[in-house]
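Homework-ish question, so no full write-ups if that breaks the rules, but can someone show me the predicted structure for this set?
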Amino acid sequence: MLNSIVTQPAAPVPASDFVRDLVRQDMQRGTYGGRVQTRFPPEPNGFLHIGHAKAITLDFSIAAEFGGTCNLRFDDTNPDTEEIHFVEGITEDVEWLGFRPAGVFHASDYFGQLYEWAEHLVMRGLAYVDDQDGDAISAQRGGFGKPGIESPFRDRGPEENLDLFRRMRAGEFADGSRVLRARIDMNHENMQLRDPIMYRIRRGHHFRTGDEWCIYPTYDWAHGQSDAFEGVTHSFCTLEFDSHRPLYDWFLEHLPLPSDQPRQTEFARLELTHTVMSKRLLAALVADGVVDGWDDPRLPTLRGLRRRGYPASAIREFCSFIGVSRTNSRHEIELLESFVRTELNRTALRRMAVLHPLRLVLTNWPVDADRRPVVEWFELGNNPENADDGVRVVPFAGELFIEEEDFAEVPPPKFFRLAPGREVRLRGAYLVRCTDVLKDESGRVLEVRATYDPETKGGSAPDGRKVKSTMHWVSAAHAVDARVALYDRLYTAAVPGEATGDPADDLNPASRELLTGCKVEGALAETPPGAVVQFERLGYFAHDPRDPLLFHRTVGLRDEWAAIQKRHR
Ligand code: ATP
Ligand code: MG
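A: Not a homework solution, just the prediction itself:
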């Protein structure tokens, strides 16, 4: 089914797509009395990922665009895997993404009504209790071009079925010993209609209904009916439910609906290169300790991306940009990153940080009357993209840290940064010229020495002489120690698992590099938790929400998406 990689951008924000066309048509025809109601229906068995963001954006935007409402509805029909803390986390993530549900519901709110509707079908001969176990039932399903086998219990009368179904509910039978099935057609070409299961016996403790129920509805039995109870008009889901639509319709057509019959429409799932998007695989990464929990900044979970520094607005814009269609495709992760970079370029405050510090000593720097180095304070702009962000003052003195890779004792060709005899600009401060280096016994450079030109305050020379390089720095006496996490792709392969069938084979063993002893300007220690700043020349970095001296690299500065497009042109 998958997967071409989309390398060309779709048209900018689609004014129209097949989903919107359909809703518009319904509005024009007065279907549903001109009402639009959608829902986002996550199963609380994990946290949300960016694929869900695509569904959320669609569900909520359609409602907003057509003057309707969108609910959040937890599809909590499986007590074994669902947990209250996933409900709380999902609610929080939807709000963080910037959407406010009109109402918050649970499929479990409807367990009573669902049960009554099941009895309704039983009494009409449209559902029956099957005494076979799951294995026997699936062995009888048949396949494509191969008819199914009718259960020996299929022709039980309604009275007997009703009695058995009530006893199932009352807890008289063992887990898995019986099921309730819809009585449709064991020869139907669509497997979903071959007497699908509606209820299973399962003594699981449900996080909301406790031990009240020992039978639980299947997805197919719960979903469309929950839509109908709530008054949903347009029920959007991903393409793998395409073959379930006739069943969705069949149930609704045979029930006494309180309002108009909702309709299911399918769209393509979001897939991204170099990552996985299924809760099952994400949960395994967490459980196996490959990552440090659901909010690990390498994961495509909304909480991971948030911790990584991705703005919610960038995720929303990305989702609108890629639009919806009925063709499965995989988008390049660089496209998402370019939305993040564009947003952060507008909003992130500029700061200086040195990731691999090398000491730079200015040998002619003045000392005061107490023979202590003079400290000068420079005013530096917070964001060249936005004058309203103002300025900050940054201390400068005779001992600084510069980036190790900004110095070369023997400069290779095209290296224009600091080297013996060469002059460079320290951003916003002075021009400095390297005189010599101090090394340890092994020949490692311990310290670079230079002289500064007092005439070049602010970074330009009165005689107009040019330097080829401007470098960032921090004052050694004022720097704050920090740790910085650099991230690479979680999977080296664009399509994890493509070669071997197992995504784990493509895990990138070097997806995180944790740097300690980084030197950052003092203002950074005061950055609010979670805020994202630009470390000049290095990229965008998010302040960890819990650890005040940890920064996560959100994205680099280089627009890799532009480079990819150029390659494809
Ligand atoms: P997963 O396979 O990751 O567990 P799921 O579909 O089981 O996902 P749900 O919690 O049932 O997860 O999904 C809630 C809604 O989000 C559904 O309507 C589903 O179709 C949609 N959704 C899930 N994954 C994606 C995706 N990758 N792209 C777009 N929509 C998605
Ligand atoms: Mg699901």
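Now go work out the reasoning yourself. Hint: The mean pLDDT is 95.
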